[in-house]
């Protein structure tokens, strides 16, 4: 057992570029013994705490859960991945700690927390239109880097508003690579257990476990609609035809009322930019993965370098299925199985926290379970 732990440390220390290392005692002191008052949230692999290092640097400390079945391998893979990836729109890894079974990651701390809090949570932030548009564009740049420039290329797998953090200047940074899966240039997809969040899941990924960067592009489209509208992707407090943001967006699009989607709290906004965001979002959420533009093209469209062009067809998953019934079935199924975990963390969908009306996390979801629901339709 001692030898196995030693080998894990050897693997970690062999990573290049090697991240800074912290002692467990140092991180324990920084977080005030991992005080609940410093807890920022709970992720799939453990809790995240705010900490202050001895040099007064404020950090976010991710404490990997000992109970995680893939704890050590996940930790080493995550450190290796994040250490190799650097971009202004990705959360920066500042270091790590590995002492026996204790595995922790140390990230930069983003003082304005998550995008979902800023948009529909209890936040003093008021995001005006230029800020929202820049968040869309910068987030697209971060994803384009992961998909097309990073080596290895990375599929995030869990793109959502709560995994986009905001710095002091409200510049967005994509966080939580704990669910990220890597793939070689030779591979076109990965079939695996689905992990993500219902509402952001691309249909081919949710139903067949077929994962490519196109799943991230779909999720980005949903996030773009959330940024534009200032509301989460599902909200049961609204009228039936407005509960699901994507479905409502298509209804407005078909009735030439798409600007009704814009957040009413926005005093001013650029109509042309708003229409561009909606068109790009609908392109990104096309039912066929091949119809979704690559993120580099999304960046070019948002930047105004090229027209937001492309054929937009209402996805079959909004017409062939009873979309609401399917989603409600999943919500009910998850609610029955996740009560105990929700007592520990009020909103498991979001790593930090969530505003009112956001549906609970529904993943990881086994593909066969999802298929059974669909087959009953």
> Strand portion, in percent?
5-15%
The geometry reads as globular
* H-E order: HEHEEEHEEHHEEEEEHEHHHHHHH
CATH superfamily of the largest domain: Transferase(Phosphotransferase) domain 1
Radius of gyration: 20 Å
Please tell me the CATH architecture of the largest domain by its name. Orthogonal Bundle
Approximately how much helix is present in the residues?
A: 25-40%
* CATH structural fold name of the largest domain: Transferase(Phosphotransferase), domain 1
Tell me the span between the first and last alpha carbons. Answer: 50 Å
Tell me the total number of β-strands.
12
Description of the molecule:
With 377 residues, the protein is an alpha+beta fold. It has two domains: 2-108, Phosphorylase Kinase, domain 1 (2-Layer Sandwich), CATH 3.30.200.20; 115-375, Transferase(Phosphotransferase) domain 1 (Transferase(Phosphotransferase), domain 1, Orthogonal Bundle), CATH 1.10.510.10. Helices cover 39% and strands 13% of the residues. The protein contains 13 helices and twelve strands. The protein has helices at residues 2-13, 24-30, 71-84, 115-120, 129-149, 203-208, 213-229, 245-254, 271-284, 295-303, 323-337, 339-344, 367-375; strands at 20-21, 39-43, 46-52, 58-64, 93-99, 102-108, 154-155, 164-166, 172-174, 181-182, 190-191, 210-211. The chain has a six-stranded mixed beta sheet with strand order 1-5-6-4-3-2, sandwiched between helices. A two-stranded antiparallel sheet has the order 7-10. Strands 8-9 form a two-stranded antiparallel ribbon. Helix 5 runs antiparallel to helix 10 (295-303) and helix 7 runs antiparallel to helix 9. It starts with a helix and ends with a helix. Belongs to the protein kinase superfamily. It is a single-pass membrane protein. Pfam families: PK_Tyr_Ser-Thr. It comes from Gossypium raimondii. GO terms for molecular function: ATP binding; protein serine/threonine kinase activity.
